[in-house]
């Protein structure tokens, strides 16, 4: 058995050599921006604009100096942006997941009055572009005095109709009605059945929805850009975007800012890259939920 | 489940009573689970949407205050060159981007499905990685690469004896953006397709091979038809995403001096109207019109593809 699979694997490898070479080229394409950022965040302004190869290191590699610059620039506001991003992503993402899990479970396992109509509305809302909501939500929030507060970013993040839809289709298959009935017959209340019987079965979908919600709010740009005017409340995306605007606007004076921006971009992507690499066994299966049905 | 468990060989009256109690309980508990989301849904989707509609029916002028103008803002929008140019841009952009993304992500997924090596597994992970990068940072990274002052374009093309293209120029910005969005999303779509491919029963391939099917025929006649629902899902995502294009052009605006005006896409135009010019009524009208256009486009698309096992079926 093992020798058979080993020999099959080696023929597989030989047979698919052209495909693997093609894959190699694709890999270079997908990784080039990362490589550029890793290399160039080691340089100072002179190295960046010096006309040497931008795809390779210069003789002096100064990650540490650039890191110190990044975290001390404008009184260390960058660290604050990172913390803001983490706060918005986790509070918003976890909240959205809790709402999606309970609503998805409700839709999947109870035949309540108005269910079909509500579910049709939900499905329709998956198609409403979220950015179309930003301006009216901004005006609404400004009348409530909520703009330029952390709630202006966190509250809209809680809305995740697609998450509800994913939870619904997953729960419908993964949590058998017979099991729920058995729990009820044994005297468990609805809350206890949900927490102790259903939730463990829903775990793969929960992790997926959580990951998707956290990523969506970590990557959010339009909403905080519209809602926030105090730069101490910015998430890292809006903050770096602002620096980039400043650096582009004054070409000569902004040269030293560019090395801060490049390293800032690199540092800001590290948390999510690590999250994806360590959680891969969860998301790789989970992302298929919507497509397999 | 409701009927069968409740049905006992008994007289009719208590059974009906029993059933009604069950139905009431289902109503109560079902709504209890859905209610928290429903509140958020009403507060943050239904309310803003209707508020936008309401605002879009008014006009505020410096002299004369706010007046009810019915559809004037919409008539203005759909005769406004700036708005229409933006609409045409996103339609043209979608028309090129979506097929391109489908081909790239489907191609990569089919390769990864055929090649089972450690290198292929590593590639799968790395090609997905751009999805983890915020659109803003992705646009910035490519902006660096495109940049004339510190990017490698001139170098790379120079090695082949060519002049480097300027993807931040007015002529090439379309392709510059096309490349960024493809890079960002192809990996995510690839994973969805790949997962669907993994769900196919491999005995089908054996049977097809015995019948003399080539690798290409297996791809075209078995794999692609069977993953149609995944392809439809991706198309919907891509459609919704491109029609509300904002982040990438907004970020590249500063780098690409002059190539991206502030009304480049409908979303950027709405943002400009609302936040730069404080014209909330017109901004709301554009937002609402854009939302309606996306909704109708996606709905028509879903209607056409519903037979093929769409995700709303």
UniProtKB/TrEMBL annotation, chain A:
SUPFAM superfamilies: MetI-like. Belongs to the binding-protein-dependent transport system permease family. PANTHER family: ABC TRANSPORTER PERMEASE PROTEIN MG189-RELATED (PTHR43744:SF12), ABC TRANSPORTER PERMEASE PROTEIN MG189-RELATED-RELATED (PTHR43744). Keywords: Cell membrane, Membrane, Sugar transport, Transmembrane, Transmembrane helix, Transport. Residues 82-278 form the ABC transmembrane type-1 domain. InterPro entries: MetI-like, MetI-like_sf. The keyword Methyltransferase does not apply. Its main location: membrane. It is a multi-pass membrane protein. This is Multiple sugar transport system permease protein. The chain crosses the membrane at residues 21-39, 86-107, 119-144, 150-170, 201-223, 257-279. It is found in: Cell membrane. It comes from Microbacterium murale.
UniProtKB/TrEMBL annotation, chain B:
Belongs to the binding-protein-dependent transport system permease family. Gene3D superfamilies: MetI-like. This is Multiple sugar transport system permease protein. Residues 1-21 are annotated as: Disordered. The chain crosses the membrane at residues 29-54, 87-112, 124-145, 172-197, 226-246, 285-304. It is a multi-pass membrane protein. Residues 87-305 form the ABC transmembrane type-1 domain. Signal peptide: none annotated. It is found in: Cell membrane. Keywords: Cell membrane, Membrane, Sugar transport, Transmembrane, Transmembrane helix, Transport. The keyword Transmembrane helix applies. The keyword DNA-binding does not apply.
